[in-house]
Amino acid sequence: MIADDFKIDFINKRIYYGENGSGKIYTVNELYSYLQDTFDEPENMSYQIPIRATSQTIYLLINGWSIDTASRKFLKDGILT
């Protein structure tokens, strides 16, 4: 499950693949959906949304959010800039 593998550091605006991740590779769209679902929860609505879709395959990290190079290796089928 993506929520078990990708972690969100709300304070430092960082998204990363957890140290004990399953090794599963997800689509960028799955990451986008996970982040949107997470950030629309009442307890997370005070944080700025980290990602925007510009098409079905192109996504932008926004509002100062980042994802490291090592974590990007667990993403496929899309462009994340």
Q: Can you walk me through this structure?
A:
It is a single chain. This protein has helices at 2-5, 28-39, 69-72, and strands at residues 6-9, 14-17, 26-27, 51-53, 58-61, 66-67, 75-76, 79-80. It is α/β, with parallel strands linked by helices and 81 residues long. It has one domain. The protein has a three-stranded mixed sheet. Strands 4-5-8 form a three-stranded mixed sheet, with helices on one face. Strands 3-7 form a two-stranded parallel ribbon. The protein is globular, with a radius of gyration of 12 Å. The chain starts with a helix and ends with a strand. The mean pLDDT is 97.
Keywords:
81 residues, alpha/beta, 3-stranded mixed sheet, 3 helices
Helix/strand layout:
Layout: H1 2-5, E1 6-9, E2 14-17, E3 26-27, H2 28-39, E4 51-53, E5 58-61, E6 66-67, H3 69-72, E7 75-76, E8 79-80
Parallel strand pairs: 2-6, 3-7, 5-8
Antiparallel strand pairs: 1-2, 4-5
